[in-house]
Amino acid sequence: MEGIEHKTVSANGLNIHIAQKGQGPLVLLLHGFPELWYSWRHQILYLADHADHGYRAVAPDLRGFGETTGAPVNDHTKFTIHHLVGDVIGLLDAITSEGEKAFVVGHDWGAIIAWHLCMFRPDRVKGLVNLSVPTSFRNPNADLVEMMRAAYGEDHYITRFQKPGDIEAELTKLGTRTAIKKFFTFREPEPFYFPKGIGFKHSPGDTPVTLPPWLAEEDIDYFATQLEKTGWSGGINYYRALHLTWELTAAWHDAKVTVPSKFIIGDMDLIYHIPGIKDYILGDGFKQDVPFLEDVIVMKDVAHWINQEKPHEISKYIVEFLQKF
């Protein structure tokens, strides 16, 4: 894809596949679920080819995804936030010179990893731009799975993802291409449900899927081909490890992110409409948890897949922030 280079890096016991292009300050792009490095295809080109100030854009396939291998996908306990941040540190060790800090950009689970990276190892990060998922620090009384089950019931996707093999069987039966299409075309500002035996509540069964203008059949082909090789378990393990992550992060209760940061979310994003989140983002809470939060942008009529849905705008916002350094 227009000069993007692919290579494999040994780090933290994994063989991490990265896509990269450009020269200059390093920008590490971390994807979410059910995504891949490919979700950043537009930003890689924009960052590397930026006329005023080129960057070295690097987007890995995260643990359990795509062409990154070595993760024990049958053991969800190896997918805690400590494992995921450890992978990023290992990757940075392998691709940076001693003392070099990176800019980090995250989306969805990539944003969660990036927040924790900046909390655990702020010495490795120069600046952070996160998309779609604000800081979601540890509630001492309950983990996220318990809270989602209490709020939304057994059909909520996070609850449905907990039983090993269950959701994988349903997604496989539905078909990988169809499942990817249904994930990426969800744009309702409401909870995401996956009722057992029905599939996607917003688009059950064989309901036809019309792709939005920002997503082509060739894009679906790439995501589906990779998922057909790896299966679904690697990415779903991130959700299955949530309780263990909750147990292991007790020492970081009320810790702050002390890295200069920018946050962008769409006003149609389901996360933006979780009760309390909008007030947190736009009120004082977010700034208290991220003292060096420089900017919050709420994009109009944009849903969760923000870096793919509005690639040019997101790329511009990222560069505007990076050029401050």
From TrEMBL:
Signal peptide: none annotated. GO terms for molecular function: epoxide hydrolase activity. Its EC number is 3.3.2.10. Pathway: Secondary metabolite biosynthesis; terpenoid biosynthesis. Keywords: Hydrolase. Pfam families: Abhydrolase_1. InterPro entries: AB_hydrolase_1 (IPR000073), AB_hydrolase_fold (IPR029058), Epox_hydrolase-like (IPR000639). Residues 25-144 form the AB hydrolase-1 domain. This is soluble epoxide hydrolase. Transmembrane segments: none annotated. Belongs to the AB hydrolase superfamily. Epoxide hydrolase family.
